[in-house]
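Researcher: Go.
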Amino acid sequence: MDPAAYDAWYDTRRGRWIGETEFKLARQLLAPLPGETVLDVGCGTGWFTRRFAAAGMRLTGLDPNAAWLNYARIHSDPDIFWVEGDAQRLPFREQQFDYAVSIAALCFIDDERTPLAEIVRVTRRRFAVGWLNRGSLLYREKAGQGAYAGARWHTATEVRALFEGLPVSNLIIRSTVFIPAGGFVARVTERVLSSRFPVGALLIAAGEPIRAVE
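Model: Structure:
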């Protein structure tokens, strides 16, 4: 898909509402403060990266696609640092970032456990990783189509299982975008339902790395 076309979807009424709703939950689960460092793994065109940067954090966006990174670089604040790299071998030292986020990117990688372990390795305080939810309305409407082609969809139970054996604590799973069509009913539903209900289009797992005591 063309990066400009992908990014333009977030300028539509439905796309902007979905994006902002997902960003709101991710930011709430991370709770970073202005000036702290955030790594966005699988940042694509940088839509979420730009929103964290606009909130005052210091951002690094990583993606394997040079064309999409170039688009992100051209359309973003020059203070954001862009890195072409593989999520399965993050080119960063241990605990280099205060926080790490990844929104619906790992579901396009065959071995999801390896990038998860890498995210935990480079994070000092907290991470938030999002997956497409197989128990959602979006799955029934869009699975296998357009930008969702080739993506793996998971239940909350499957997402939790991906973390088994990794050095993480206080793992929680929340969801958002319960009615992906947008509009008045969707917005009201989003305000009424708790993110604890695992039926939203996006599942976000958030937790903290466990560090060995020396």
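Model: The chain has one domain: 3-208.
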